[in-house]
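INPUT
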Amino acid sequence: MPNYEVALVLRTMSRPELISTLRRTADAIFNKGGIIRKVENLGTRNLPYKMSAHGSVHKQGSYFVFQFICPPSSLHNLEEEYGRDVDIVRRRIFKMETPEEFECTLHEEIKPPAYRKDVQKMIEESKKIDKYKFKYNSGLDYCPFQK
Amino acid sequence: MYVTLLLLPRRLQCIIPHMRETSRSLATLGGGEVWRSTVEPQSELDEEIQKARMKDMPVEDMKNPFEREKAQCILCQYKIVPDYKNVKLLSQFVSPYTGQIYGRHITRLCAAQQARLEKEIFKSQSAGFMPYYFKDVAYVKDPKLFDPDRPIRPHRF
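OUTPUT
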């Protein structure tokens, strides 16, 4: 089962309310056969933009991040369940991927266009295209008329 | 021809090849052709001189000492992986006036890192961590990683 991460924005609530909401969201994952690996509290702060959810506009919210393992088939149900929760302003589930390693190609990219490999390839390809050339069909290897 | 040669001053006569006496042969060294003296060593001193000369010959298969270091983008250099929760980092690549993500010609990132960065910024904005239309006020005075007015390529903005 792959690792997922859900970013939650909860509406501003009193502490006991917040605890019950978090317990509800966590239980939703457990009920789907998932395991929670980590819970992070990113604090309560002003939202970067107004968010309207469940008929009210929110300007403040508490941020929480859950890292969990879950069967992919239950992901849709989980998202839908969070969507129905009145206390959750916004939820996004992302797959956690280990960042793939790669070589920096900046030194290639800052070369002048004529030295860049992708540009050279484009020039090669443009040469390959057969352009239409008018055929006289006169059987002569020269043009008998004035051009 | 003979007359003209006689008329030439002495220095010029030396330059004309068939007039000069040569005791040198062509040898190949390090891929290129090198003129080398073929005088047989007669004494120990001569041998030593020959050895000393060989030391001064160009070294074979040597790395180019003037080769420049490969340029790296700032994220590759410090091995930073952009994350959607790290709004402070992502905000540095966004215009404070419009919230637009600066292009590769301004940020000076490699193609792969720029793609990764843009993906994370979209994720962050969608999850409600980062504003769409401006830079978060708390991060406006952060140190600048690049100057948007001096792009690598000219742009239409």
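end of record. Chain B touches chain A at residues 70-73, 76-77, 81, 84-85, 104, 108-113, 116, 123, 126-133, 136, 152 (CB under 8 Å).
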